[in-house]
Write a structure and sequence with these properties.
heterotrimer; A mainly alpha (222); B alpha/beta (296); C alpha+beta (415); B: 296 residues; Rossmann fold; 6-stranded mixed beta sheet; 4-stranded antiparallel beta sheet
């Protein structure tokens, strides 16, 4: 049963998921292509100095990468369910309706977790070639809200897509635009240290929001 | 025998202030095939949605195998095969993928009938369902339901978009399947042609009310059309109690009624309505449906 | 679980709206508040005040009492150390002030300016610093090839190889250890830039709040433990590079006093003034031939303490002005919003949920009205009120934010 759901979800998202993750890997690759270039043409000590004291972030192009992946996965996973109200088929499967939505959500989450882990791992390993932990740790702190934004947009888009009424979709969009920008607040490296845990809790709170719009769909709100 | 697969009691629903129906009662016996017929907008899909728990009725409830359709257990859902209007399926899959997907959910999954149907289709191995014709898609959807081996089939407007050949194929296959395996079928349709080949009982809905709910053969036997021509075209019988429907073009009159030929003739005689060419017209189900619901 | 998901959504929406709605409100209605500019005149021994707003108004403490203002020229003549070049150009520079002959070169040598803002303290500080060669015999400082951190020892990491320079690390760590340094460092304070006149290394506080001066002289460690009074702790140290070469740094203690640390003899001098808190207020320190002027600017207030060159208090000035909360816009905000959440803060580089709850509870009026409106809407819908008790409570507590949140996620459940 779990396998069947995962199979269907995978069929929907695979290409966009793989492509957007490859795009993410390329973005990480580009960061270090640039770093090694700067190491060659600027002295490494000057480059370190700029990162430490001039508030420059060598990883800033990563900002929107998790967002793109999360958005791509969410749209490809949930949009096909709403075409011709196909999600009726899903709800008719012999599983509790909330449970199947949760399984779908967990599958998407697992995919995002996989791509986030992959990107972070590559980023970390390549960083250790050029930089000491004193530079890497603030970088990871700054990347965390961006990674979380990928999950947040995934949950929000799922939530909005499954809502059956356009009026409420619009309301949810307003809600999303009130809460989402906090993940992308600009700050210097390490600036998100006090808030990352709270943001993670917030994302967990958002994770089950698709149950709400899914319920409204099932109850024939229109 | 005698148990109801579906039992809807005092079903009432509104969209906003617009009433769909009030206090509708439907009973479908196990092993029988019920056709819910009605024109567009009379609440066929509403009923199907309530049956499947996709719509909360304002009042009343539907029980499927004794369970409220709003809270069906997975075990009961496994006993119901559901065909969505337009033969909607996961169109991003091909016929192999979709079989693999569904087989994971049903204990009684039997892929034989599915592949038997698929073998008749001329579709490519990796062809996505979205690229198939409407008829082909209907066969995929039907095949999946057959493989599921449900006890109750709920088919929403299965005939829409099918050409006559496919429709006939679908109906014959379904009737044979249901009768040999003692399945219950609840189906809606707004195309009435060929339906009498399939259904045992008929439920005809009009706006806000039920016009007939009975065995289809009894209905066909009892519901009659009489034709005659009158001399005084000003006559209007539509308010008479025995007249289900009254159509008139110039002096040519059609009367639809459950009463006998003798009764109608006696009535005309009693009222002194002069007429000629009185005859009983033989009707198919579609004629009877139109006769009952009117052309508008 | 579906109901739970709705309450999660409502709570998150309340947070979101508590960020966004007040933000838009202030964007529309906030008015700039300009604090006055205060300088000490050694000519008049009076505070010179510049006020902007409806045109520029130059005056002084004494003149303002009688409602008089100064022309630009008059004003500039009162501040000869600030407008040296202008006075020289006008030929109005006095030959002597307070009996001291004026040498313009001397003036600029003695003039110091210093500023620190709360944001510098509330910031993710680096843990790696460059240790310059203090006696390189070169005219310009050069960026070292390695950077140091002080954790369980003092470590130098070479940037080229990203590897620890073991030999140098051991050498510096050993000297620190011998001088009684307790690892790790709590704070490392210096001027990590090549654009300074010379290098004086770093002032480092160890884990036992002891103060050390660490620098590198001819590739060898130089470590000096600074004697500080028992119990004195510093919350912030900022090194300076003044021409006078009189002291290494301004040091701000946790009990809100200001110190300087003199060069060579490491004397810690306490300024006889109170409430100097760079964590909350912007601190500006101007020094010249005769005086120190220590200015604290905070929300709605300013104070200026004047010290002479012997660090004796000469004069004090303070004033307050209307803060945003006292303006009509601020009062309206207190009626509209139970709280405001800001992710950023003018006094911090950190992102966090800065929650400011509004007191007094004026907002309860609007919250109650909204709760009643919601109640009436529910009554009309003939819905059971017991299902909406929590919603009404949320509106009563969170006002306009909760009202919107509760209504964009319809509380429509069938049992």
């Amino acid at each position: 049963m779990w396998k069947s759901v995962a199979y269907k979800e995978w069929l929907k998202i695979r290409w966009f998921f793989i492509l957007s993750t490859i795009f993410g890997v390329l973005a990480v690759g580009y960061i270090f292509l640039k770093v090694q270039y700067d190491f060659k043409f600027n002295d490494p000590n000057n480059y370190w100095y700029v990162l430490l004291f001039m508030k420059v972030k060598y990883f800033s192009i990563l900002k929107f990468v998790p967002l793109i992946i999360g958005f791509a996965v969410s749209v490809t996973q949930y949009f096909p369910e709403t075409v011709d109200k196909r999600i009726k088929l899903t709800f008719h499967l012999p599983i509790n309706e909330n449970k199947i939505l949760l399984i779908m959500m967990l599958f998407g989450t697992a995919c995002l977790l996989a791509s986030s882990t992959l990107l972070t791992l590559i980023f970390y390993v390549l960083s250790t070639i050029y930089f000491p932990v004193d530079i890497i740790i603030p970088a990871l702190i700054s990347i965390t809200p961006w990674l979380l934004s990928g999950f947040a947009i995934y949950y929000l888009v799922a939530f909005i897509i499954l809502e059956p009424m356009w009026k409420y979709r619009l309301f949810y969009l307003v809600f999303a635009s009130a809460i989402f920008p906090i993940f992308l607040e600009s700050s210097i490296a390490g600036g998100f240290a006090p808030v990352n845990m709270s943001l993670a809790v917030l994302v967990i709170g958002l994770s089950i929001s698709l149950l709400f719009s899914g319920y409204r769909f099932r109850k024939g709100e229109q | 025998m005698g148990n109801n697969a579906i039992e809807c009691n005092n079903l009432t629903h509104y969209y906003g202030n617009k009433m769909v129906y009030e206090n509708l009662n439907i009973h479908v016996k196990e092993g029988s095939i019920l056709g819910l017929l009605g024109k567009n907008g009379t609440g066929k899909t509403t009923t199907i949605n309530i049956l499947n728990g996709f719509l909360q009725p304002r009042n009343g409830e539907c029980l499927i195998y004794g369970e409220n359709s709003q809270h069906l257990t997975p075990a009961t859902k496994a006993r119901i095969g559901f065909l969505i209007e337009g033969h909607i399926q996961y169109a991003f899959m091909n016929i192999h993928q979709i079989e693999k997907f569904y087989s994971g959910f049903y204990k009684r999954w039997d892929k034989e009938p599915y592949w038997e149907l698929m073998s008749k289709l001329k579709v490519g191995k990796n062809q996505k369902i979205s690229t198939m014709s409407c008829g082909q898609r209907s066969q995929v959807a039907l095949g999946l339901i057959l493989a599921q081996d449900p006890d109750l089939l709920i088919l929403d407007d299965f005939s829409a978009g099918l050409d006559p050949g496919y429709r006939r194929l679908f109906i014959d296959y379904l009737r044979e399947y249901a009768k040999t395996k003692r399945k219950t079928i609840f189906t809606t349709s707004h195309i009435i042609q060929d339906m009498e080949r399939l259904i045992d009982d008929v439920l005809i809905m009009d706006y806000n009310r039920v016009l007939a709910q009975r065995n289809v053969h009894e209905f066909m036997r009892d519901f009659k059309q009489f034709y005659f021509e009158v001399e005084a075209p000003a006559i209007n019988l539509s308010n008479e109690e025995f007249v289900a429907n009254f159509e008139k073009i110039h002096n040519k009159i059609e009367i639809y009624t459950y009463e006998s030929e003798k009764f109608v003739k006696g009535y005309l005689k009693k009222k002194g309505i002069a007429h000629t060419n009185f005859k009983k017209i033989e009707m198919g189900l579609e004629d009877a449906f139109i006769g009952l619901t009117g052309k508008y | 679980m579906v109901k739970l998901s709705r309450y999660f959504l409502v709570v998150i929406a309340v947070i979101g709206f508590a960020i966004v709605i007040p933000k838009f409100y202030w964007m529309a209605f906030e008015k700039p508040i300009r604090s006055p500019f205060i300088m000490w005149s050694c000519i008049d021994n009076d505070f010179m005040i510049t006020r902007s707003g409806d045109g520029l108004k130059r005056t002084s403490r004494n003149l303002e009492k009688i409602g008089e203002t100064l022309t630009r020229e008059e004003y500039e003549q009162k501040l000869p150390f600030l407008y040296v070049r202008q006075l020289l150009m006008n030929g109005t520079m006095p030959d002597s002030i307070n009996g001291v002959d004026i040498d313009t070169h001397d003036i600029s040598q003695r003039r110091t300016t210093f500023r620190v803002r709360p944001k510098e303290i509330h910031s993710p500080l680096p843990t790696l610093y460059p240790l310059f060669e203090s006696q390189s015999r070169r005219a310009n400082l050069e960026m070292p090839k390695d950077f140091f951190r002080i954790t369980w020892r003092m470590e130098f990491i070479d940037a080229e190889s990203n590897k620890i320079n073991e030999e140098k690390s051991r050498m510096f760590s050993a000297v620190l250890y011998k001088r009684g340094f307790k690892f790790p460092a709590k704070s490392i304070n210096g001027l990590p830039t090549t654009r300074k006149s010379c290098d004086e290394g770093y002032l480092v506080i160890d884990s036992k709040d002891q103060l050390f001066h660490v620098k590198m002289i001819e590739a060898k460690p130089f470590v000096e433990k600074v004697k500080i009074p028992n119990g004195l702790k510093f919350k912030f140290i900022k090194c300076v590079d003044f021409n006078t070469k009189l002291f290494y740094a301004y040091l701000f203690s946790t009990d809100n006093h200001l110190y300087i640390l003199t060069q060579y003899d490491y004397e810690l001098i306490k300024f006889p003034i109170e409430n100097i808190n760079p964590e909350l207020n912007e601190i500006k320190i101007y020094g010249d031939l005769f005086n120190f002027n220590i200015i604290s600017v905070g929300v709605g207030f300013l104070k200026s303490d004047i010290l002479d060159r012997d660090y004796k208090l000469v004069d004090q000035y303070s004033e307050t002005w209307e803060v945003i909360d006292e303006q009509i816009e601020g009062k309206v905000a207190k009626f509209l919003f139970p709280a405001e959440i800001k992710m950023t803060n003018k006094k911090s580089d950190f992102i966090k949920f800065n929650v400011e709850t509004n007191k007094p509870f004026n907002w309860l009026i609007l919250s109650s009205i909204l709760a009643i409106i919601h109640f009436i809407i529910l009554k009309r819908g003939k819905d059971k009120l017991t299902k909406h008790v929590i919603d009404l409570g949320i509106i009563a507590l969170t006002g306009i934010f909760g009202f919107i949140a509760v209504n964009i996620f319809p509380n429509k459940f069938y049992d």
